[in-house]
Design a protein that fits this description.
Distance between the termini: 65 Å
Structural class: mainly alpha
Helix content: over 70%
Largest sheet: none
Radius of gyration: 21 Å
Oligomer: single chain
Strand content: under 5%
Amino acid sequence: MRALLQVSVLVMVLVIFGTVTVSAQNGAAEAIKAVNQLFQEYVAEGNADAL
């Protein structure tokens, strides 16, 4: 019974950790998209030669 409890706690910890990791990856992907969008707008305004 105790082993089952330990396994279920371990699974819950892994699920929580996995959820946090996925949300962090999504946040990073959104940040990269935002920076990419800003860069494309910057280039579209003709500022590419300033780089």
